[in-house]
């Protein structure tokens, strides 16, 4: 956008002076805590004055936006998407003693969805009234990298910016407004490029709670897991720290629905995917166990060597003579 052309058009339509328009632009930037530049501010000012600036926009917007499915690691990207999830703002301590901020959220277009992380000043976008689920945003000059879960993320740092309610968006590339219905993802369809999924599966096993030492010190952390699915396709769902309490009342044989899970690479086998419960997850039992004995037997379909069970951490029948012991945990 040519800023001078835009200001000239506003002057023609409103008879405001250049100084008055510049004051409104500066005020808009200040109101949004510096999260937008002059171009973004003048678009908002024009909107407030019922002036359409679209005819003055160039290729700096929609024609440079990249579909989410084409995001590649270690590249900069402009993307537009509809916000599907917003997580709690977090904070962390830097080595120099200062405190940083981050705000994770997920956006999606018709090609895919991706997790985004806004850092420091950009994280303050979460304070804006317009930053809500279903709102459309454009991320300008975001940096794509592989996240800790193994999927791609867009990081929004000091050289990036977020445009709220951006202009010149190709709406045919975006999904409609998201409803409240829960979309269940089959275990066979799990992939790291879908940053948030919901499942509904039978519970095969429940593992005991374990404590671990956090890298940053402090009180020990806690984790526990359940195995869900079928003997042919087992997926582990891990509950961390305070979320371990969400496991209360769960038992093998029940069918459980869990929402807002994050897919992650299995820590032993990168070809497999585990799921982690998040603060937004909801756990509900959709089918109770009718016969614990028969339910546990239904998860076993064939006899396998003990060595297979130990090496692959899967379920199976074992046969043998004499006394032997087998113990495993996760």
Count the E strands.
14
Oligomer: single chain
Order of helices and strands: HHHEEEEEEEEEEEEEEHH
What is the residue-averaged pLDDT? 83
| Cα separation of the termini | 56 Å
Looking at this structure, what is the CATH superfamily of the largest domain? Nucleic acid-binding proteins
Low-confidence stretches: 55-60, 290-329
Share of residues in helices: 10-25%
- Give the strand order, joined by hyphens, for the main sheet: 1-3-4-6-5
- CATH-defined fold name of the largest domain: OB fold (Dihydrolipoamide Acetyltransferase, E2P)
Shape: elongated
The Cα radius of gyration reads 25 Å
Major sheet attributes: 5 strands, mixed, barrel
Find the structural class using helix and strand composition: alpha+beta
Number of domains: 3
Please tell me the CATH architecture of the largest domain by its name.
Answer: Beta Barrel
What is the percentage of strand-forming residues?
Answer: 25-35%
- The helix count comes to 5
CATH class (first level) name of the largest domain: Mainly Beta
